[in-house]
Amino acid sequence: MTSLLKIARLGHPTIRENSVTVSPDQLASSAVQQFIDQLVETMRDAHGVGIAAPQVHVSQQIIAVEVLPDNPRYPNQVPVPLTVVVNPKIVEHDDRTDEQWEGCLSVPDLRGRVSRWLSVKVEGLNRKGQPVTLEARGFFARVLQHEIDHLHGYVFLDRLLDLKTLTHLREYELYWKK
């Protein structure tokens, strides 16, 4: 059993820092492997669909994404198996964008409409240190972009096109979620 990590909230300096790359030697260490397990467990416990290391006070370029069919925060999304990417970079993207509602574990109880590319190609390393290339569309692409933003000190609020879409979760559930 792993232990849960404390989620950093907006305002904590680690949320706005550029995170550092992880070397293959660091990635192979038992400490980083244990951290990845804790990162995934923390995401699952919070019912997140993605999490980045800076969100748990660790300034390293590690993200995890997993969309389960029964996720209470995003119940109608296409499932995505657990995907851990180290040092991820968006190397290609669709020219087309889509504006959808987003939330964040580090900005609890708020939602806003954010424009993201419809598809992305991401390169990085898997947790074993092997090169990976992900081609993602739709919600999976959105979550990857959201988590990669965290590695560079951005939160979804920075991407809002119109601040009038910012809403508390309760009001989102009552008036905007369809």
Summarize the structure in words.
The protein has 178 residues and is an alpha+beta fold. It has one domain (13-176): Peptide deformylase (Peptide Deformylase, Alpha-Beta Complex), CATH 3.90.45.10. The protein is 24% helix and 33% strand. It has helices at 24-28, 30-45, 138-150, 169-176, and strands at residues 50-52, 62-67, 80-93, 97-104, 107-117, 119-125, 131-137, 167-168. The strands form two sheets. It has a five-stranded antiparallel β-sheet, sandwiched between helices. Strand 6 (119-125) and strand 7 form a beta hairpin. The longest helix has 16 residues, at 30-45. The chain is globular. Its EC number is 3.5.1.88. Its cofactor is Fe(2+). Removes the formyl group from the N-terminal Met of newly synthesized proteins. Requires at least a dipeptide for an efficient rate of reaction. N-terminal L-methionine is a prerequisite for activity but the enzyme has broad specificity at other positions.
What features would you highlight for this structure?
single chain; 178 residues; alpha+beta; Peptide Deformylase; 5-stranded antiparallel β-sheet; 3-stranded antiparallel β-sheet; 24% helix; globular; EC 3.5.1.88; iron; Peptide_deformylase
Q: What oligomeric arrangement do these chains adopt? A: single chain
CATH architecture grouping? Alpha-Beta Complex
Q: Major sheet, described briefly? A: 5 strands, antiparallel
Number of domains: 1
Query: Distance between the terminal alpha carbons, to the nearest Å?
Result: 37 Å
CATH class: Alpha Beta
Structural class: alpha+beta
